[in-house]
Amino acid sequence: MGKRPPVVVLSSSSDEDGGGGRRGSSTRRPRTPATAPARVRAQAVSGSRKKPRRESSAGRGRRGSEPAQYDSLKAEFDMLSEDFSECFNDLSMPGSLQKTKELWVDKYTPNSVAALAVHKKKVEDVKKWLEEKMKEPKATVKAIAADLGADIYEWATPVPTLWTEHVHANSGLRYISKLEEFENFVEKIRKYTVLCPTSTKSQRKLTIILIDDIPVTSGKVSFARLGKCLTGLIQSTQVPTVISLTHYHKSESNDTAMWNSEDIESLLQGAGAHKIAFNPVTTNSIKKILFRICKEESCDASEELLHQIAISSGGDIRHAIMSLQYHCLHPRRHSSALSTSTARAGSKSRDSLVPGQVSYGHSSALPSPCGRDETLTLFHALGKFLHNKREISDADIVLEPFPLKENLRRNSLKMDVPEKILSQAHGKVRTVADFLYENVLDFIDNEAVDDAWVVVSYLSEADCLLTGSPIASYNSENMAQLIAASVAARGVLFGNAHGATSRWHTIRSPKLWQTEQSFRSNKDQILKERFDCSRTCGSCNFSDLVTEFKPLERWIGPRNDGPSIGCLAHGVGDSLLGLESLDVDGNNSEDDDEIEDC
Amino acid sequence: MLWVDKYRPKTLDKVTVHDQVAQNLRKLVSEQDCPHLLFYGASGSGKKTLILALIKQMFGAGAEKVKLENKTWKIDTGTRTLEIELAMLSSSHHVEMNPSDAGFQDRYVVQEVIKEMAKNRPIDAKGKRAFKVLVLNEVDKLSREAQHSLRRTMEKYSSSCRLILCCNSSSKVTEAVRSRCLNVRVNAPSEDQIVQVLEFIGKKENLHLPPGFAARIAAQSNRNLRRAILFFETCKVQQYPFTSNQVVPPLDWEQYVSEIATDILTEQSPKRLYAVRQKFYELLVNCIPPESILKKLLAELLRKLDADLKHEICHWAAHYEHKMRLGSKAIFHLEAFVAKFMSVYKEFLVATFG
After folding, report:
1. CB contact under 8 A, A544 and B226
2. Closest CA to B99 of B59, B61, B124, B134
3. Which PANTHER family match (chain B) (predicted)?
């Protein structure tokens, strides 16, 4: 989603060096690189591990015919379709299919321990554990197993049947959820593991079970089922079993707690599993691997390109290899496009001479057609807005075509475009606005009450925008919602012109939520009291009731405890119930630290 | 029982202040065909008293047996189901509710409630299908959409139910709704009328009123009869026999708001703004309507303000009052007003005193 705008930037630059010949198509061209890698990647990730080639080639066939249709439609689209097919030519033509027989990801799956990009110590950990379990010191998850000479039984993710599909098809097939299938699999392993390997001649051959993809569960019931199934497996299995979990989901599903890898983790550990944590693969190791692949494929990718790919992959080695392959498909064009983009990013970072710059530069100056979408936690995003980090001085201002008044000028942001951060954090807009409102005053200098007004007035506008779209539903795609989010975030950034000196702040959860809750319960209570008191249906307007009856009743009523503001104080006063305070300044992720550095 | 409830006229005959209106209403009901009604007038002028008396006139004592319930309405909007909880008072003959409490979802409430009422109509003694009465409070606070759907449902279900609408200002009710109702203006009682009522109550309660005492309460009540009676009773509880210089204790929330005003005037900083926000929260938790807070706060601030600034401050108060109605989180707009005030006031102080 958020990838489109940077790609458009790229189009203008490639137009310059592309020369006159291609000008006609230049406006459309960028679309192809934007969509293509996304698709290829999607195949590799979602497609079944076992047979990626068959599936993806089927996909290619379909895609290959699409441009042909367009072709016949209009001459105007000629250039577009040409580009499109050009891009995939190497893939879709049967002749070239032989050339790139395999996805490199599969081709270069490490076969030995040495080829792994993971830190040696971690490999040792896994190895040691496996050795211990197998009591087979001579033998040494896939790479180790190969070295060990052991068979791997993998839980192959079945093609999921969606419930809606099932309803639609209404065929004789019974609906089997992924969870059920997984249960069956585990059941089978528990019963028959001993039989399988021994049936062949290699009696001594070892088996490892690798479970890579634990079914996603939603709701407590199914989670409990999964948990039971897993603990059963761990406690009873006679074969070494490796379960791999990813943390990636955690940041993705900010508020929907449907997948909780932490819960599973603690559950597994509780059942006696041994935990080995892996960090994301470092940029350097990815680069090393990419180099090796380049050498073996004998394609000449510049070091800068590899660097760019390695950085933008965000520690996802599969993704890095996929994008490398994509680049090598059509080296001429993409290398030029990418090199311009890297040159730009490079020049920028050279100016400010901070190496850390690259770390956020990779997402801000991301004109390369590859790179995965980063996700942020809500608090991380809030921290960015609230801390409002800016360049110390900005030379660009001189170049501004429309010089602004002094009081409206701001140094440029040391972060992505706010809209992009918002989309990465994908929280509900209302939540973002509430959090910003609750916390922003802490970040404003105590002298700058004008700034406070600017900020709050923007938030007030944002509230009106949010309310203006009543049937908002929960998808943040709604236009008014997006605008409101933008107004809130940018208002906070713009308004806070004289930020308070940086110090440690906690982010409070909005007290507003509590207030609204106790407001509702108080209201019910007041209405009830009034009704009990009068016994007739003669309640008056609620506002009159509260502003006139209540306070005077306190004087008149039997429980005459005097005039007290104390009476007002039930509910909000002291406790910050609900969310615990969260730490914005750091510790949320490494990325944050990098920002602090510069 | 509070005097306000105790001395509220239960039937149209006993209405004293607006006896002329009451007469007309009685005639209206006796002719059996009652149109939709719209009562409007200032707060504490007797709209509700008239409505209740009218309902009693229509249905007899049965209308007095009411129950309070919090009903949850499930509304299917096509894409998803909304759940709206609303408090309502109902007897077998009528339902009273405040649809504007549902916020921007009020239009669904209006449609849905009326539809449901139309479905189960009571049958009167003669076996004829009678109509039910729906009393809607604070119609002027309904959103425009809700008022439009109100108009449609009024036409569609006019055979099965009668609406009695009640609001402070008829100017905020759309023309279409107004023209479909018989408009009844209930003006605020004059101070003389209030004095009469207070003296009547005093006689019934066997109290001795010093001369001028009732008049002082009446003056303080701002032509709000309910408030006058409440003040009167408060005075009685505080000190009896009355003394002629007795003061009515201030309302606690108003006192609290004037404290906020003092806070704002003594220091203008984000930190103080945050402290003020906490006080606002406290008022809001206690259900003080944000509009009232803003109004009172403005009045308090204006009292201590230089004349040069008054105009500007009023402008901003109006601005944020408007925003408050457009938006849904009143606190945002209240705080924006306070922040603006601080900003303006600080600038003024710096310019004046350096």
Report:
1. yes
2. B134
3. REPLICATION FACTOR C / DNA POLYMERASE III GAMMA-TAU SUBUNIT, REPLICATION FACTOR C SUBUNIT 3
Measured on CA atoms in the order B303, B304, B309, B314, is the torsion positive or negative? negative
Q: For CA atoms A115, A119, A124, A129, give the dihedral sign.
A: negative
- Backbone φ, ψ for residue A156 (5° rounding): -85, 120
Residue B89 tokens, joined:
């008072």
Q: Could you give the CA distance from residue B242 to residue B248 in angstroms, rounded to a whole number?
A: 11
Which span out of A176-180, A206-210, A446-450 was modeled with the highest average pLDDT? Answer: A446-450
- Residue A469: Cβ-neighbour burial (10 angstroms; 0-12, 13-18, 19+): middle
Question: What angle is formed at CA A344 by the lines to CA A341 and CA A347, rounded to 5 degrees?
Answer: 150
How would you classify the pairing of strands A582-583 and A506-507?
antiparallel
| Rg (alpha carbons) of chain B, rounded to whole number | 23
Instruction: Tell me the backbone φ, ψ of residue A480, rounded to 5 degrees.
Output: -60, -35
Nearby residues of B256 by Cβ (< 8 Å), 6 or more positions away: A565, A568, B279, B282, B283
Residues B42/B168, Cβ–Cβ less than 8 Å: yes
Q: Rounded to an integer, what distance in angstroms lies between the CA atom of residue A540 and that of residue A24?
A: 72
CATH 2.40.50.140 fits B252-353, yes or no: no
Token pair of A459 as six digits: 């938030």
Residue B346: band (very low, low, confident or very high) from pLDDT cuts 50, 70, 90: very high
> Angle at CA A131, nearest 5°, toward A125 and A132?
90
Q: Residue A343 has which token pair?
A: 């040159």
A 523-582 near B (Cβ less than 8 A): 523-524, 526-528, 531, 533-544, 546-556, 560, 563-565, 567-573
Residue spans of beta strands (DSSP E) within A99-249 = 151-154, 207-211, 241-243
For the segment B180-215, what is each residue's pLDDT rounded down to a tens digit? Answer: 889 999 999 998 999 999 999 999 888 888 888 888
d(CA A456, CA B277): 12
* 3-class state of residue A121 by DSSP: helix
Residue with tokens 């608090």: A379
* Residue B171, CA distances (Å) to A543, B135, B185, B290 in order: 19, 19, 12, 21
Any idea which fold B3-185 has?
Rossmann fold (3.40.50)
pLDDT tens-digit readout, A371-400? 555 566 778 888 888 888 877 765 555 556
- From B272's Cα to the closest Cα of chain A, the distance in A is 9
* Cα(A194)–Cα(A546) distance, integer angstroms: 75
Q: Which of residues 501-530 of A touch B (CB under 8 A)?
A: 511-512, 515, 518-519, 522-524, 526-528
The amino acid present at A186, given as its one-letter code, is V
User: E strands along A55-136, which residues?
Assistant: none
A567:B284 CB<8 A: no
Q: Which letter does DSSP use for residue A547 in this model?
A: I
Nearest C-alpha in B relative to A517: B285
Longest CA–CA separation in chain B, Å? 83
**A519: which chain B residues are within 8 Å (Cβ-Cβ)?**
284-285, 287
The percent helix, strand, coil of chain B (3-state, each to 5) is: 60, 15, 30
The Cβ-side half-sphere exposure at A375, using a 13 Å CA radius, reads 11
Please give the share of chain A, as a percent, with pLDDT higher than 90: 2
Contact (CB, 8 A) for A88 and A64 = yes
Query: Could you read off the pLDDT of B101-131 as tens digits, one per residue?
Result: 777 677 778 777 777 776 766 666 665 656 7
User: A484 CA to chain B: closest CA distance, Å?
Assistant: 12
Is-above-0.80 flag for pTM? no
Question: Which residues, at least 6 apart from B221, have a Cβ–Cβ distance to it below 8 Å?
Answer: B44, B194, B227, B228, B231
Rounded distance, CA B104 to CA B284, Å? 19
